[in-house]
Structures are given as structure tokens and as C-alpha cells.
Amino acid sequence: MDMPVRRSITMDWDNFHPARTQGLTHDFIDHPLLAPDELAQLGKRCRGTTRWFSFNNNATPGSNFDEVGKLFPNNRSIVDSIHDISNAKAWVLLRHIQADPVYRTLIDEAMDPIRDHLEAIDPGMYYRAGWIFVASPHTVTPYHIDRNNGLLLQVRGHKTLYVWDPDDEYVCSERARETFHARHDLTLVQWREEFRERAHRYDLAPGTGAYIPMTSPHMVETLDESSITVSFTYSTEATRRESMMHFAHELARRAHVTLPPVGSDPLSDRAAYALTALSVAVHGPGSHPPACPSLAHRTPYAVAD
User: Fold this and answer.
1) pLDDT tens figures, 104-154
2) What 8-state DSSP symbol labels residue 57?
3) Which of 38, 136, 43 lies closest to 86 in space, CA to CA?
4) Which residues lie closer than 8 Å to 241 by C-beta, 6 or more apart?
5) What is the chain's mean pLDDT, rounded?
6) What structural domains and CATH numbers belong to the chain?
7) Rounded distance, CA 218 to CA 238, Å?
8) Contact 77, 86 (CB under 8 A)
9) What is the DSSP letter of 171?
10) Rounded to whole angstroms, how far apart are CA atoms 7 and 205?
11) What pLDDT band is residue 284 in, cutting at 50, 70 and 90?
12) Which pLDDT does position 275 carry in this prediction?
């Protein structure tokens, strides 16, 4: 009887910090669930749901990520695009793969072995999710931020990943983060070409990747070949707390009250957290708002929206 293959994600765990990006290596490049034929089958199972998203490769780094599907529609089906991704001139995202029983095992296979490393400094992992990106040559993932920590693994092809520090207000203001956490609105997260020189740049090949902290702006460009990438995201007690404080700042701003930046005043941070916790208690758990479900209703996997 064949023994199951044990796969791994490796980082410099001694120097890991949840607010700092760093490179990683992995051995998921030959995982059967990441083969194009299997991804096409997953795409078929995603039909009629919100668990896939696609656009053509006319998008630019400065395209609004919330609008790219409307502005740059992919006129081919998701399955056709995956089967012929080298020629499809498309970007395809298979979202919330944890909602698929088969692909939930992929998330466990990736995250369970490294959970202790991550939680040693950033405890309380929950709300795990998976995202698979299939992209044609010369395709851009526009500049944006996310609401969870993430591990991005390059599986096929080469691409360039740009990641900015999560506290770099020159490239993404506090106001932009507040709006994002309050309404998942990326309107104020705006690209400028000069940002490239401030980024951490990763030239990704199969078997490499990067850790991306919550709300670290990032942008991706594929090169002369098609690409398959998988990302595993998760929340922690700290990401939950920060999301709630940013949301509270947005509420205060609507009331014409300006609070000290998140992380600069412990008393203000505690008050902001308490305010948002009250809002969650009134409105109930959910992903909007604030960004993650209530710790009182902590779930191991993200709820597919």
C-alpha cells in the first residue's frame, strides 16, 4: 500500500513575524489537485456559484480590483479558459476552495503541519481558506490589499510578485485601510507606478512563494508563460483585533471624530476594539462588517460568500 505523500511549506521560522513579508519554498508543484484537468473539474463544480471570478488580460496594475470583472470581461467559460490558459488571455480565480470537500483536504495538508510555527508568535488561527489563480501569459493581478494573512505558492510558470509593508502609508493610507475593513471597498487603494521601488520583489518560480501579511498591498505580473498559483489564507486573534480597530476608526470618522492611528495609542486601540465588539454583538457575526467573523463564533474554515 502506497504511503501518502507528506508535503511541506518552509520559511525562516526563527525570524518569522506576522507583520513582515518573507519568501518561502514548498513541494506542492506536483500535487494532483493542482493539475489543470483537476482544476477544470473544480471549475465545473463552481458553476452557478460565486466561487469563481475571471477577467481578461487587459487589466493593469491600477485597475480597480473590485471592478475588473465588469471592466475586462473574460468571454470564455471558466473551464475552457483553464484548459487553454496559454492562449485564453485570461485571469481565473477559483475562490473559497475550502467549500469543496475534495479541496478542503488540500488546505489541511498545507496548513496543519505549519500551524504550530505560525501560532508560536501569532496565536488563534481560524477562518482558513484557499484560492487558486490560473493566469495566461502577460496578465496582471491589480494592486490591492486583503483582509487575512496569506501564503502564496507558485505551482507552474513564473511571475513577479510585489509586496509592500502593511504599515507603509505612502502606498496605502490609514483611511484606505479603514474603508477597506469597514466595507471591503478598495476605491482608496490606488496604484502609482513609483510604488515599485518601495516594494519587496519576489521573482517566483515553481516551488517558491511568499508570506503576505494582512493589508500588505501587493500586485502580480505573469511573464511569458501561463501560471498556476495557490494561496492559503487565515485569520488570527491579532488580525481580528486589527480589523475591528480599523472598522471603529471608520465609524468614528463618520461621526467627525479622528482617532490616533491604529497601533499608536493603546488606550485608543482598546476603546476602538470595545466599540466594534459592541457592533458585532448587535449585528451578529459575519464577514461584512467587520472583516472577519466574531471570535465567539470562530470557525476553522472561512464561510464562502
Assistant:
1) 999 999 999 999 999 999 999 999 999 999 999 999 999 999 999 999 999
2) T
3) 136
4) 273
5) 90
6) 9-236 (2.60.120.650), 238-295 (no CATH)
7) 21
8) no
9) T
10) 17
11) low
12) 72
DSSP string, 88-145: S-EEEEE--GGGSHHHHHHHHHHHGGGHHHHHTTS---EEEEEEEEEE-TT-EEEEE-
User: Distances from the Cα of 73 to the Cαs of 65, 86, 151, 282, in angstroms?
Assistant: 13, 17, 27, 39
- CB-based contact 205:158 (threshold 8 Å): yes
Give the DSSP letter of residue 163. Answer: E
3-state secondary structure of 233: strand
What is the tens place of the pLDDT at every residue in 147-196? Answer: 999 999 999 999 999 999 999 999 999 999 999 988 889 999 999 999 99
Q: Is the pLDDT of residue 4 over 90?
A: no
Helix ranges (DSSP H) in the chain? 36-46, 68-71, 78-83, 101-111, 115-119, 174-183, 237-254, 266-283
C-alpha cell at 54: 475571471
Query: Edge-to-edge, what's the strand order for the sheet holding 159-163?
Result: 140-144, 218-222, 159-163, 200-204
Flag whether the pTM goes above 0.90. yes
| Residue type (1 letter), 75 | N
Strand 159-163 versus strand 218-222 pairing type = antiparallel
